[in-house]
Amino acid sequence: MAQEAYVPRHCRVVHQTARRLRIVAPTLRKDAERSYIYEILLRKHPAIRQVRAVPELGSVAVYFDVGKTPRETVLRLLDTVLGNLGRQVASSPQVAAALDEHAPVRDYQLAIEGMTCASCALLIEMLLRRDPRVLEAEVNFATETLRVRARMDKDTLYARLQGMGYHPIALDSLAQRRLLIERENSRIAEAWRRFWCAGLFAVPSIALGMLAPHTPFLGLIQLGLSAPVVLWSGKPIFKKAWALARQRSANMDSLVALGVGSAFAYSLVALLIGRREYYFEAAAGIVTFVQMGRYLDEHARGQAHEAIRRLVDLQPDTATRLNNGVEEVVTIDEVQVGDILLVRPGERIPADGVVAVGHSTVDESMITGESMPVVKEPGHTVTGGCINGNGALQIQVKAVGADTVLSGIVRMVDQAQASKLPIQKLVDRVSGVFVPAVMGISVLTFAGWLAVGAAPATAFGYAITVLLIACPCALGLATPAAIMVGTGQAARSGIYIRNGESLEMASRLTAIVFDKTGTITEGKPRLTDLVNVTPLDDDRVLSLAASAEWHSEHFLAQAIVKAARERELILLEPTHFQSTPGRGITAQVDKRTVLIGNRLWLEENGIASLELEPAALNFAGHGKTPIYLAVDGAPAAVLGIADRPRDNARSAIERLHRRGVKTLMATGDISAAANHVAGLVGIAEVIAQARPEDKLEIIRRLQSQGEKVGMIGDGINDAPALAAADVSLAIGGGADVALQTADLTLVNGDIAKAAEAMALSKFTLRVIRQNLFWAFGYNTVAIPVAALGLLNPMIASAAMALSSVSVVLNSLRLQKT
Fold first, then answer.
1. Taking the model in full, what pTM does it have?
2. Active-site choice (339, 515, 643, 669)
3. How many whole angstroms separate alpha carbon 343 and alpha carbon 327?
4. How far apart are CA 405 and CA 606, in angstroms?
5. pLDDT digits (tens, 9 = 90+) for 407-428
6. CATH number of the domain that 110 lies in?
7. Rounded distance, CA 314 to CA 20, Å?
8. Is 515 noted as a catalytic residue in this protein?
9. Where among 351, 375, 403 does a domain terminate?
C-alpha cells in the first residue's frame, strides 16, 4: 500500500483502490448507534459518491470521485469527521435535530406503497432504526402499514421513506383510508394487466423454446416475444431491484431480477455470437409466473383487508351542511367540529355529534351490536356511520377525522393487524439473511457444477433456478397474514383486538375474572326500592341523591338519576364533587353535604349505618344492590337497585368451564347481592366489596399461582386490573378508560365473545404454525433440489410464485370461523 503523506489519528487505512478507501475506526465501534450520522456528514461532501459503514467492525468504505478530490483529502475528511463528530453534528441542522433529546416524540401510522415482498418490510425497518431519531419502527408487509415513533416531523419521515424508493400515505382519516383502498384496487388491476400481457407473449415463446430447434431465426422471434415481457411486464421488478442495489440491499425482487436478467442477457449474447443456447423462453416464463403470483397475492390480500374495508364503508363520502339555514353538500373532509349537519331519514350519520334539532331512532348495530334502534332527541349523542331512522335530525359535529369513534375502531383493528407476535421476531431474523444466503448458494451451485465438469450453460441454468425457487415472501407472510385475517374476522364478530400479542395469549387463558355490574349484568340497573329514615319526604331524598350523582358515569348513579327524572324531580347542580372508585362519592347539593356509596364509604367518613342495615340486607338477599345515602353527616336512606344478569351470561360461563377456564367474580357490591348474581350465572368463587386495588391484587395472586389470567370489566375501577391481566377484555359502552386499557373490546357487551375470542385465537395460532411449516419446509426442500439440477427454471418460478399465495389462502380459512 502506498504511503500517504497525511498520517491519520482517528482511523487506519486497511484497503484502497483508485476510487475506494476502506478504513477501520475504533471510535465508530464504540459509538455504533451514531454510524448513521457519520454517513450523513460524509455524504454532504460533493466528492463522496457512496458510504458504507459497518459499526460492529468499526469499518467504513468510501467511494469517491478521484477527478474532484484526491485520496489524501478524502482521508483527511474521514479523520476529521471521526475526531470531531460532536462539533460536526452541531454544525449540521439535520443531524443536530437527530440528536435533540428534547424534540417532541411523535407517533405515525402510515400505509407504504411499493413493497413487493416481506424483505421490503425488513429493509424499511432496518434503515429507519439506524436513524437515531427513530425510537421504534415496525413494518407489516401483509397490511402494508408502518408504525413509527420518532423525534422527527412528518415531512422528514416522508422524505426518508421516499429516499428508500417507497411511497408513504397518511392514515389520519377514513377518507384517506378509502383512497388507499381505491389505490389497492388499482394496484390489483395493474398486476392483472402485467400478468395478462406477459402471458400473451410468453406462451408462444415457451412453445417455440420447448418444441422447435434453437436456430438464429427462431431465436430472433423468441427475442421479439420475450422482450415485451421482460422489459415491460418485468419493469417494476428491475426498478425495485436497482433501487435496492444502490443502497446495497436486496430482497425477492433482487433474486428474480438476477435470474431473469441473467437468462435474458446470456441468451442475447448467445444469439449475437451465433451460439444456440437460448433462455428467452425461461426469462419470459419466469416473469409471467412471478406476475401471476403477484396478482394472486394482491387479490388474496385484498380479501384479507375486507374487515377494514367494511368499516371504512360505514362512513358516507359527503354530508349536508346547514349554513344559516342554507343546505350545501360537502365532502366528509370539509366537515369541521361545530358544523350543523342535516341527516335525512335513511341516511348514514356523517360524523360524531350531538342532536341539536329533531327526533328519530338510530340503528347503532354496526357500532354497538345492539339490534334495537335507539331513540335520539336533542342533547343525545350520535355516532358517525350509524343509520338514521324515520325522522330528520340536525346534529352538531363534535368529532371529525381521526377523533371519531369509527376511526378509533378502524385504528384498533389496524394496530392489531400490524402487530407482530413473538415468533415473528425469529422469522424476521431468518428472512433478514435469507436473500444474501440464497445468492451465495446460487454462486456455489454455479461453481460446483462447473467443478464436476458440467457445461457453463447447464451450471448457469441451475444457478438461476436456485435464485428463482427461493421464497422469503412465504416466510414473511406466514404470521402477519394470519393475524390480519384473524383480527379482521374478530372485528366482524364484534371483537376488536388491540394487538397481536393478546390474540396469541387469549387461547392460553386458564382463569377469567369478571366484574359484576355492566359485565355479568346488563348494565341497565333501575331503582326498585327506597327506605327513608329522615324527616324529609322520599322525593326530596331522591332529588338530593340524583343531584349529587348527576355527572357520574357509574351505572348505579345513572339509575338513580333516571328514577328522579321519571318522577320529574328538579335536579340541582352539585359542587365540590369528589369520587372514590370502589367506595362512593361526596358532593354539596343545595348547601347540604351528600354522601352516596357502600357501607364502608359511610363508615370511613365516620357515619354509622346500623339503622339502614336491615333494609340493605333484605335488598341484597333478593339480588339488589343497596346504595347508602347520608346527608349532613347522618344516615338518610338506603336505595335498592336491581340489574339482572345478561340473557346469555350463564351459557357464556358454562362455555368457558367446558374449555377448562376457571371463573371468578370480583365486585364492589356487597356479598349477598354478589353471591345471588353469581349463583344465577354459575360462578362459584366471589370476591365482594372489592376495591380497585383488591381487584388488582386478585389478578396478581392468580398470576403468581401460574394462571394465565383474563379480566373482563367495564368501569373506571376495573382499569388497574385490566392493565395487569394477561389479556384484558372491556365491555363496549363502558367507561372510556376501561376501553383504552383493554386488549380486546366486546362491542355489544356479549361476554360469550370471550370464549369465541379464545377459540379464534387457537385457530389463528394453528394456521400460523401451518404457514410457518409450509414456508420453512418449502424452502428447505426446494433450494437443495434446485441446486442439484432437478428443476426447470420456469417450474421453479411457478412454485415460488404460488408458495406465498398458498400462505395467504391458508390464512383466509380463518374467515370461515
1. 0.54
2. 515
3. 11
4. 43
5. 776 766 666 555 556 666 666 6
6. 3.30.70.100
7. 58
8. yes
9. 403
